[in-house]
Design a protein that fits this description.
By secondary structure, the protein is α+β, with helices and mostly antiparallel strands. It has 3 domains: 3-22 and 39-207, Acyl-CoA dehydrogenase/oxidase, N-terminal domain (Butyryl-Coa Dehydrogenase, subunit A, domain 1); 212-324, Butyryl-CoA Dehydrogenase, subunit A, domain 2, CATH 2.40.110.10; 331-476, Butyryl-CoA Dehydrogenase, subunit A, domain 3, CATH 1.20.140.10. Helices cover 50% and strands 14% of the residues. It is built from 17 helices and 11 strands. It has helices spanning 3-18, 42-59, 63-69, 74-83, 101-112, 133-136, 139-144, 155-165, 170-189, 192-204, 268-271, 322-328, 330-358, 370-398, 404-429, 440-447, 457-476, and strands at 115-118, 166-169, 209-212, 228-232, 235-246, 253-259, 272-278, 284-289, 300-311, 360-361, 364-365. The strands form 3 sheets. The chain has a 4-stranded antiparallel sheet with strand order 4-5-9-8, covered by helices on one side. Helix 8 (155-165) runs parallel beside helix 13 (330-358). It starts with a helix and ends with a helix. GO terms for molecular function: flavin adenine dinucleotide binding; medium-chain fatty acyl-CoA dehydrogenase activity. Keywords: FAD, Flavoprotein, Oxidoreductase. Residues 320-468 form the Acyl-CoA dehydrogenase/oxidase C-terminal domain. One of its GO terms (cellular component) is mitochondrion. It holds the Pfam family Acyl-CoA_dh_N.
Length: 477
């Protein structure tokens, strides 16, 4: 039994009783009447400490190496699986621990501290990144998309993990977390047989999944997906091309969104279907690994599907439910993304503070110069505020409240804090910050993608403004 399993099972009774993020079976968690509390439960602290220790011992020492080589961090993924840092969010009936998303986000922030590119591989990020968490703490959402229930974890827990992982390396974090994104649709919408087969597989072996939605002509406009599936007897024939798929070349199986109603007048909510597709099936062709600016430990590729035969048993919920499944996950996965960005910003602040106390100009450490000190202060303001944003958005989901606005606020704000903090860290390092021998240039490269994936900053602002205006119109009606 791995260390995390021992901790979780030993403290589960106490956790169920005291944790503000422990979910209730088949119902959102009740809102505690005692007001705000920023203290983590003992189980959450143990999980966070485990992730922090793993980050410092296993990720930070090799983050630069993986950034240079661009190799997928399989050794780290396997170690994370062995100690129990992967797949803790998978429901207990599938062999998982049923941890909350908030715990996962704590871990992700720590891991991204050392390398953000690999966290997507751990499966804690959608533990958080995207989606599993989405119905972990809110069975109402699972019911809305036709899910089977049984999700007993919270988004807040996943975010705890995400922040810890991101502290170490956002590249490795993304590699780990993207698996969670791929798992999310199965967690929130899969039946018991699908969950046991595909989620249970990840418990038995250190395998990962992937989320296949983005296409050459469909990024922010998900309704523009052209990949199609045609029903032939008891099978579906899948054809099309996906791009920018994280874990595309290493995943054991994919969640694939495809158009199943060819009528252009058919609304998006009914035109698409979600499928579980195994990578080794005939006709599944992963492309070359993309050479990205940052988060290079993450495996990003295009995938072509050529007459792939999918059994009807691998359809999620039913024909036409795919769009709701794919979109429903984002409110749950954006808080973990925000937690990862917060972890990177925390690392930038940590490195800049340390360097500013060592580097001297005019006879004193540069931290004593107000211009530098104020930059550190601004970084701290951003980190603390971003953390509060993801915590509230995750808390809302766990308690059955709609968090669409707050999830977008957290994702947008944290991603911008990460970019500004990384850029300011490079500035504080001066010429050394532009050199690969120092850690902050990598942080700057890794940070940019946070403003792009999981919905660009512009898309987040679009969502926020639409929700605000819609609410205002309804209140005036």
């Amino acid at each position: 039994m791995n260390p995390l399993t021992q901790v979780v099972r030993a403290t589960r009774p106490l956790y169920r009783k005291l944790s503000t993020t422990a979910t209730l079976a088949s119902a959102p968690k009740p809102i505690p009447p005692t007001g705000l509390c920023f203290e983590l439960s003992e189980e959450q602290k143990a999980l966070q400490d485990l992730a922090r220790k793993f980050t410092k011992e296993e990720i930070i020492p090799v983050a630069a190496q993986y950034d240079k080589s661009g190799e997928y961090p399989w050794p780290i993924v396997k170690k994370a699986w062995e100690v129990g840092l992967m797949n803790g969010h998978i429901p207990e009936h599938c062999g998982g621990l049923g941890l909350g998303v908030s715990d996962s986000c704590l871990v992700c922030e720590e891991l991204a501290f050392g390398c953000a590119g690999g966290i997507g591989n751990f499966g804690v990020f959608d533990e958080c990144i995207i989606g599993e968490e989405f119905s972990f703490g809110c069975t109402g959402i699972a019911t809305a998309v036709g899910g089977t229930g049984g999700m007993d974890v919270g988004v807040f827990d996943g975010c705890l993990v995400a922040e810890e992982l991101a502290f170490g390396c956002t590249g490795i974090m993304t590699a780990m977390e993207a698996s969670g994104l791929g798992q999310t649709p199965v967690i929130i919408a899969g039946n018991k047989e699908q969950q046991k087969k595909y989620l249970g597989r990840l418990i038995d072996e250190p395998l990962v999944a992937a989320y296949c939605v983005t296409e050459p002509g469909a990024g922010s406009d998900v309704a523009g997906v052209k990949t199609k599936a045609e029903k032939k007897g008891d099978e579906w024939i899948l054809n099309g091309q996906k791009m920018w798929i994280t874990n595309g070349g290493v995943a054991n199986w994919y969640f694939v969104l495809a158009r199943t109603n060819p009528d252009p007048k058919c609304p998006a909510s009914k035109a698409f279907t979600g499928f579980i597709v195994e990578r080794d099936w005939p006709g599944v062709v992963p492309g070359r690994k993309e050479q990205n600016m940052g988060q290079r430990a993450s495996d990003t590729r295009g995938i072509t599907f050529e007459d792939v035969r999918i059994p009807k048993e691998n359809v999620l919920i039913g024909e036409g439910a795919g769009f709701k499944i794919a979109m429903g996950a984002f409110d749950k996965t954006r808080p973990p993304v925000a937690a990862g960005a917060t972890g990177l910003a925390t690392r930038a602040l940590h490195e800049a503070t340390k360097y500013s106390l060592e580097r001297k100009t005019f006879g004193v450490p540069i931290a004593h110069h107000q211009a530098v000190a104020f930059m550190l202060a601004d970084m701290a303001i951003g980190v603390e505020t971003a953390r509060l944003a993801w915590q509230k958005s995750a808390w809302m989901v766990d308690h059955g409240q709609k968090n669409t606005v707050l999830a977008s606020v957290a994702k947008c704000f944290a991603s911008e804090v990460a970019n500004k903090s990384a850029a300011d860290a490079v500035q504080i390092f001066g010429g050394n910050g532009f050199n690969t021998e120092y850690p902050v240039e990598k942080l700057m490269r890794d940070a940019k993608i946070y403003q792009i994936y999981e919905g660009t900053s512009q898309i987040q602002r679009l969502i926020i403004s639409r929700e605000i205006l819609t609410a205002a119109k309804q209140s005036n009606a």
